[in-house]
TrEMBL record:
SUPFAM superfamilies: ISP domain (SSF50022). PANTHER family: CYTOCHROME B-C1 COMPLEX SUBUNIT RIESKE, MITOCHONDRIAL (PTHR10134). Residues 173-272 form the Rieske domain. The chain crosses the membrane at residues 18-39, 45-65, 107-126. This is Cytochrome bc1 complex Rieske iron-sulfur subunit. It comes from Micromonospora polyrhachis.
């Protein structure tokens, strides 16, 4: 082999290694995406790993096309004719034989690995559409972590006794074990039972009622209590809910009452739920059902 041929040979081998490395990085990105999805689905991490997967694939294919595939214009200056069989055999051996510096099989294998890993990783998000596990995706918007026997706890995780809810004041409460759940926040309030014009949707315990904290308009926390009026106010778009009239909206864009939570006093003296909210908590999608 002449010196220029040796240099070209070395160049092709280095390029092949570079392409295989890019495909390997793509495969790692796809595996990272799948692992990230299974272990919690952090959105930024999913985006970054997918970007790595596609970038590795793009870089590998671009280098392959630019460095290893024939380029340039071709001019046919004579009538087409077939090469002699011996010459064709030689050309084929040149391209595919063991002496060729271009490991096409290896590169195709690496490309198949990258595409295969990406294809498998793309199947993982389908989990969000399938009824697998206890909290079915098709019910995830309807159910909350509240269920019979789940105790009410404060933001600090302390179980709540009926006496913790004082007259005409609001106490934010959460389902025990699910302090950060998006649809679990609720509030407990105690009003004079004689003032209820409409029976609370989930009943009351000597005037004590519990409702979802999420506004039924767009899901903001209904965080303001207008003391003495029995009304809760949402600061986002000023919806007001009358707790003395079944927590129905009396002002603002909300069209649906705040769902109630049925509660009782457990044998340990703490408040606990006897079921889920009386209606799906949160935004007004449900009002169009
Ligand atoms: S989110 Fe409460 S009024 Fe709009």
């Amino acid at each position: 082999m002449t010196r220029p041929e040796q240099q070209a040979d070395r160049r092709d081998r280095a390029t092949s290694r570079l392409i295989a490395g890019a495909f390997a990085i793509s495969a790692l990105g796809a595996v990272g995406f799948a692992v990230g999805y299974v272990t919690g689905g952090q959105t930024q991490l999913a985006g970054a790993t997918l970007a790595v997967a596609f970038a590795g694939l793009a870089v590998g294919l671009a280098i392959w096309a630019r460095k290893l595939l024939p380029t340039g214009g071709y001019v046919e200056e004579h009538e087409p004719f077939a090469s002699p069989p011996a010459q064709r055999r030689l050309a084929a051996a040149d391209l595919t034989g063991s002496g060729s510096p271009i490991r096409r099989r290896g590169l195709l294998g690496a490309l198949a690995l990258a595409l295969g890993a990406l294809g498998v990783a793309a199947l993982f998000p389908l989990r969000s559409l399938l009824p697998v596990g206890s909290r079915r995706p098709d019910r995830a918007l309807r159910d909350s972590p509240w269920a019979a026997g789940v105790r009410l706890v404060t933001a600090e995780g302390r179980p709540v006794r009926p006496d913790d809810v004082t007259d005409d004041s609001v106490l934010p409460v959460f389902p025990e074990g699910h302090p950060r759940s998006g649809d679990g926040p609720a509030f407990a309030v105690r009003l004079d039972p004689a003032r209820y014009a409409v029976r609370p949707p989930a009943g009351d315990l000597a005037g004590l009622v519990v409702h979802s904290l999420l506004c039924t308009h767009a899901g903001c926390p209904v965080a303001l209590y207008l003391k003495g009026t029995g009304r809760m106010l949402c600061p986002c778009h000023q919806s007001a809910f009358d707790l003395l009239a079944g927590a129905r909206p009396v002002a603002g864009p909300a069209a649906r009452a705040l769902p109630g939570l049925p509660v009782e006093v457990g044998p340990d003296g703490f408040l606990r739920a006897t079921g889920d909210f009386t209606a799906p908590p949160g935004a007004g999608f449900w009002s169009r059902q």
